Amino acid sequence: MNILITGSAGFIAPHVAQAFTSRGHSVVRTDIRASDGIVRSELTSLESMLDITRGVDIVCHLGGVGDVYLAINEPYTAASANVLGTAILLEACLRNKVRKVVYASTWEVYGEPHYQPIDEVHPCNPDHPYNITKLAGERLVMAYDKLKGLPGVALRLGTAYGTGMRPNSVFSLFINKALAGQPITIKGTGQQSRQFTHAKDIARGFLLAAESDVHGDVFNLVAGEDISIQQLAEKVAQALPTQIVYEPARAGDVPPARVNATKVHKVLGWQPQVQFDEGLSEIIAAHIPQVAVAG
Question: Which CATH number fits domain 2-164+195-224+258-274: 2.60.40.10, 3.30.70.1450, 3.40.50.720, 2.40.30.170?
Fold first, then answer.
């Protein structure tokens, strides 16, 4: 199949591309930021989206604003990319007869939990510009599936981690502090937890969703293990000895919640395969400067 991956200059998309190419699919990577192997396109331009989706079978839509702090500082930018951009992409896919769109949503669309673990029928009540715009994009995908016949699947992703993360990710911040011999700083108590889900496992979720006949549905795609920020800091400090200090909590951080991934196990056969300690060791190794050895 011919696969188009939006947001390819981001963190998760290269892992998704690798999953598809390893299965023999043809992949085109696109982003507003062009680079080697990435074709430039603009989500908010219908002409650009019509051009880039021509001849495409499946679109994996990871494009838009994924930085929660950018979204809270510039809600208009998040709305433009995540809502308007998604609507324009879907219209281009419809006109070009794309077979399916697989949309990168987030577990954060649920907002404050009414019950836990959260399953897919839990009400969605996001209260942050990032989560609000991601849910709006997700609802557009479902509307195009139901009303216009463009098959779509939304994956509500767990908090992603893996090699290639943004420099402002908590992993990168902790590791770089430790490498510099500085204390790791935890905002708040450190008891806030996440079901960190490795980018390779997320990529396999996109592959399974794309290759299946399932559409018009949403799935929680999260690993089962809860890791607190304090546990993460302790694991980094154990690998790269340093101190841990605490500061007041930062506004805009999403409170922890337990998310249920039973549905995706049953329907798509997805199971996480990368253990957290294995993934963390991989990230730490990628951050350590490689010292050239004279031959």
Answer: 3.40.50.720
